[in-house]
C-alpha cells in the first residue's frame, strides 16, 4: 500500500480506526510529513520492482492490501508468494486487491460510444462473467493472477478484489488528494476545448463512489480478515462499491456551470463534439483509447456483495454535492 489517493486514504482510516494494527507500507518516496503523521507505521523503502523485498515482507504479514500499478505482474506475484510461505488452512493469509470498473468498461465496442449501454454489472449475479473476462479487459492480467491464486490455494490464501468505479471527494492521506477523472476532464476543457463537452446524446453513464465510502469497504474487509475471514466472501469475493450513476451529459453540464461560475471558461453550456474529436482528447496518455474511455464509454455497476455480506451502507454526500470542491481543487492544481 502506498500513500496515493486511495492507498493514502485507506492508510489514514486504518491508523485512525485501528491503532492496534501493526502496519507496514511500501514507499518509493516518503512524504515530508509522513513520519510525524504516522509515527507507528513501519516504512519499507522500495518500489514494485523490489520483488524479493516485497515477498519477504508479505511472508511476515497476515493481510496485504495492494493498491498499486494494475499492470505490474511481478509485484502481485511477489505478494502472493510471500503470503503463501507461512499460511496454513488453520491460519490463512489475506490479500485485498484494488481493481476498477475499467474491467467492465465498453471502450472496445463502439456500439455505445456516447450512448447509455443497457448492460449493468452486478457483483453477485454476474460473478461468473466477471471472473472470466477476456484478456483485453483492463486490469485483467492482475485479476487472473489473483483469481488463480484463490483457486489453487483457497484453503490458506483468501483473496478479495475491490472494484472501485470513478472516485470523488478529497483524499485523506499524505499523498495525492484527488482521483483522476475530474482533473482529466477539467484539463481537457481548460487547455483544449474551452467548453465542457459530450458526444452523441451524452447518455453514456459511469458508476461513482465517494472516497470515504470506498474506504469503508476496505475497512470492513480488513476487519473481516483480521477476524479470520468473518462474513466476507473470499476467493470469488468481487466487490463493486458504486453508490450512484451519472451520465456524461449531466457530468459535463455540472462542470461547465462550476467553471463558468468561477470565471474559468466563458460559456457554461456543454457542447456536443463529434466522435472524431473525442479520439483526439487526452493526448498526454500513451493509450489511444483514453479519451474514448473517459468521455464516451459506460461503466455501469451495482454494488450488492458489500451490502449483503459486509453491511456496507454508503453515507457520503453525492458526486454533485462534492463536485464544486473537486473541480476547484483540479483548477488550483493547474488542470
Automatic annotation (TrEMBL):
It comes from the Eukaryota. Gene3D superfamilies: NAD(P)-binding Rossmann-like Domain (3.40.50.720). Residues 8-229 form the NAD-dependent epimerase/dehydratase domain. InterPro entries: Epimerase_deHydtase, NAD(P)-bd_dom_sf, NAD(P)-dependent_oxidoreduct. This is NAD-dependent epimerase/dehydratase domain-containing protein. It comes from Podospora pseudopauciseta.
